[in-house]
Write the structure tokens for this entry.
Amino acid sequence: MLKHKEGKKWIVAFFTLFLSVVVFESLFLLLIPMHWEFNDFLSDTLGINTNYALIIILIFCIPLIYSIFFLVRNLIFIKREDKTDPALVNKILSILLFVITIALLITLILLFGEDSVIIIQLLEYYSIFLFMVIIVGFIVLLYPLVPEIIRFIKKPVKPLFQPKAKKYTILSFFFLFYIWILVMPIIFPPTNVIKGELPPKPLIIAHRGGAHYAPENTLAAGIYTSNIQAAGWEIDVRISNDGIPFLMHDDTLERTTNVSEEFPSRIDNRSETFTISELKQLNAGKWFVDNDPHDTIKKGRVPSSLIEIYNVATIPTLEEALNFSRDNNLIINVDFYGPKNDHPYYNQYFNTCFSVLANAGIDELIWLTSYNEEWLEYTMNNAPNMKAVLSVGLSDNVNLEEFKNSGYDMINTHHGRSNRLYRAAAEDGISINVWTVDLSSRFQQVWTLGVTSVTTNEPIVFIEMAKPNWIIQRPIYIVIWLLVDLIGVSSILVARYIRSKKQI
């Protein structure tokens, strides 16, 4: 369409800018459940507490509007006058904005660290729609290419400079490339394309008791977990300076308690340097109500009956958390955070925690989760009814055969692991718990892959989900794409043939 138009490269430039901004904004909006972590990281880094995610979204509306305006404006010019020549400032600005957008996308990936794999997972989840756009685009592109291909085939061959082999090689590469594009969706099907029956829905384990909906690692979070009927909750266990295991994730107490009011000179002290009586003086829930860090209270996602309970929440001991789990029949997934080697209970940390766990009398509800295989072996030998759960880092190698031989009950690993690993584990009857799954799209993916359970900050969202938003049986999926390819290509060729007959 623009073959003989002057300045068409700037149409392409503005369209490329528009496309890059749309991709960036779309990805950023799809990552909404992770915006709090993003804001928290930048607040700590820059020392200013604000909603950076919203600021970035609003700022990028400017280049989006700019690119749309100049794309349409220059398309009108090129249609009316067969040429367009944007002002120099717009030429420079379009290139600069494109570079900034790409740089910010790379920065976003780096900032999310291990969780940056979620971007790839999002693209995989929506790949069926991306494939559709690509396939339709390439099929439509065939329309103006067909006469060019015919001319290329009919063009006389110069024996010396363009042997037939060269012509046929070029044609072969062209057709192979098109065939590759057309069959790509079949070769790389998304995880929601399944064989056979949909696997059972994973158990929902509330991360720290549902950290987006309740003050984490408190009995108030346990109450929330029980109220929404999650299968269980995940807790983090440290040990006080006088040897009592208690619940706390962070190294310090500043973020989740009022330590700045009760012990202002000890704000930066590690939480395990406090005695249990000192820890019990702290309020561990009011910060959640006051700050509403994930806007779940404002959006009405937290029952009003729980607000007062949150306001007076304190730091619980491990024993209190176990008693609550027993009374409410909740799985309790115990994660361990041992003290520094100068702590008085450094050498007794695990044994002290294990003694409390064993004395609770609810071995069948306890998942003892650790990277430490000695602790897992000890658990298997002394409390065989507890689940011995091996934690595996995102970059650690996982040999499923070796795991089966180890006798451990479950693998606990990051949701960014290979989909192939999850599917192979499910086919081999190996239980896997994945953490921390907060995006609906990823939950649906691991569900179709057959994982046993997920640890999540968004438990109520997944509990309310009756089935994945979309699943397709593999044979039907293949037939759909073959029909799209066949009908699409045939329609273009027939349309070209009809037009050529009319021109004769």
